[in-house]
Amino acid sequence: MTITSVLVANRGEIARRVFATCRRRGLATVAVFSDADAGSPHVREADSAVRLPGATPAETYLRGDLVIEAARRAGADAIHPGYGFLSENADFARAVIEAGLIWIGPDPDTIEVMGSKVASKARMAEAGVPVLDLLEPDAITEKDLPVLVKASAGGGGRGMRIVRTLAELSDAVASAAREAGAAFGDPTVFCERYLDAGHHVEVQVMADAHGTVWALGERECSLQRRHQKVIEEAPSPLVDRVGGDLRKRLLAAGRDAAAAVGYRGAGTVEFLADAGGDFWFLEMNTRLQVEHPVTECVTGTDLVGLQLDIAAGVALSGPEPAMSGHAIEARLYAESPADDWRPQTGTVVTFDVPEVTARFGRTGPDGIRLDSGVENGSVVGTHYDAMLAKVIAYAPTRDAAARQLAAALRRTRIHGVTTNRDLLVASLLHPRFLDGTADTSFYAAHPPASLTATAGLDPALGAVVAALADAAAGRGPLLRGVTSGFRNIPVGYRSRVYAVGDREFEVSYRFGRDGLEVAGMDGLALVEADAGAVVLDVDGVVRGWTVGRFDDRVVVDGPRGAVELRRVPRFTDPSAQLPAGALTAPMPGTVVRVDVKVGDTVAADQPLLWLEAMKMEHVVRAPADGTVTELPVALGQQVGQGTTLAVVAGRDD
């Protein structure tokens, strides 16, 4: 079989990643896009693109019939599914093959077996691979707790709930089933024993149609939130620490798992391991993983290229690739970790990662690789996953990779959306991560709010920088020796007010005979300032920052971190004030469940209603004890960010 043109049945970062390999091989590329993605980078980069009418996944990227028709119309002879959406849909794979197209993935029957976590566990047990026993929800007792409710189909943390009491079980199963049905079209869920502190270790396999199975080392992905990976690395620090024959046993289990189902193509066999080196099969992802770049870095392979070769019938040749050096990947998300990991929406005004040495391809030693789905001007909406990019560091040692990645993230300029950047930096530099002992309980033991409490630029100093830059924007640059507002006689202070969250910072400043004076802050001297940059002498140390603006926001970036400030107007429009106790939508979404009515008495932290956004459910809870006095939304209603969902009057109101 010969592949000449590849349609990627996906979007964003993974579509761009596959296109990059195709371009290097001289293959034509075809994109598909929803109405919401019409201006996305992956559409512009493809040789041709076909519109899938609609905005939601169900209308577009999950419509296999439309994707296959798009391939026919654009003249593609092969389809790469990426990850997510239809990548592990056996019926879609069959339809691609029946349409006379080349399917870049495993056989449909294999997808079917391994795509069901229930069926795959049974097959792995038969093959001698260690597994955790399945638990029927109706048969779970106190001695089984805690348990994990999991969707049988799909992944990415969707359709998963931790249950610690029997009283929670029924609601957790129902909620997980709803989320799984919305994300994967299959509401089937099951339960298994949950280990509070374990290590997520996985083996990358690659198998051809001629009987050869490679295990290309292992990865560790123990830092997770909501069962979704945050930081991934290769090789695994747990495996290195335990030593002995653990790596040999893991890789053998990965090969055995692939061989047991006659696997072909790229796949990942995921295990849960304990600190002593025992491990159990979790699932097999019959596709390329989000974290595949770390394996590419340490093995020197192009996994997408190998997928293309295997789909075309080429045999794997030469020795099985071994790992060298260390690679760490951080997933950069539009989300607010301290606010229960809440996804964020908006326009990415500025996106600039410094010192990138490779994009969508293997970097050299001591390099930074960037696989990004967004660029300046990209819109992050509610219909798709909130991941913006993956930033990967590759270095000779693990410590060097962690510190290099943290430095690159700290210097990254991201304006327009709230991200998890500060959390990533704090995680990478945390002693438990640096010594390689962090496990899946890391964020439970170290909540995001505590990790990032001292992250970024001091907001008080950031407010001074913002005030000087804003002043320069209105009056022209403030150069060395030339101060805006200078008078030969004493003048009063000028004042500007900025806010970070609920905290306000008033900056009162003036320029006198001795230069810049800031009320309440000594030791500052202005070196130079314009609308986009400010340089100050701070207690004898010269420091510089860049300044960006969007809407009513000012973002100050520097080598020690960044701070985003909101300009506080002098006068507030009374009509913009919300009633006391109002609960607003944290993001655009759909109301999928309402558990209260007007007049109900509620307790603090009681769930009131559920929003579905970015393929996950988000609970809106009562802020305090009180009574529901207003409920202006209904089941199934779509709401915008900031929409009032309910009003809870306190008992003393």
Main traits of this protein?
alpha+beta, single chain, 17 helices, 653 residues, eight-stranded antiparallel β-sheet, 40 strands, 33% strand, nine-stranded mixed β-sheet
Describe what you observe in this structure:
- There is one protein chain.
- By secondary structure, this protein is α+β, with helices and mostly antiparallel strands.
- It is 25% helix and 33% strand.
- The protein has 17 helices and 40 strands.
- The strands form nine sheets. A nine-stranded mixed β-sheet has the order 14-13-10-11-12-15-23-21-20, with helices on both faces. An eight-stranded antiparallel β-sheet has the order 27-26-25-32-31-30-29-28, covered by helices on one side.
- Helix 4 packs antiparallel against helix 5 and helix 12 runs antiparallel to helix 13.
- The protein is globular and about 85 Å long.
- It starts with a strand and ends with a strand.
- About 1% of the residues have low confidence.
Care to count the β-strands? 40
Rg over CA atoms, rounded to whole Å, is 27 Å
What are the segments in which pLDDT stays under 50 over at least 5 consecutive residues? 480-484
Strand order of the largest sheet: 14-13-10-11-12-15-23-21-20
| Class by SSE composition | alpha+beta
- Could you give a short account of the major beta sheet? 9 strands, mixed
Q: What proportion of the residues form beta strands (DSSP E)? A: 25-35%
Rough outline: globular
For the residues shown, what is the average pLDDT?
92
Q: What is the overall number of helices?
A: 17
Kindly state the percentage of residues in helix: 10-25%
Q: How far apart, in Å, are the first and last alpha carbons?
A: 74 Å
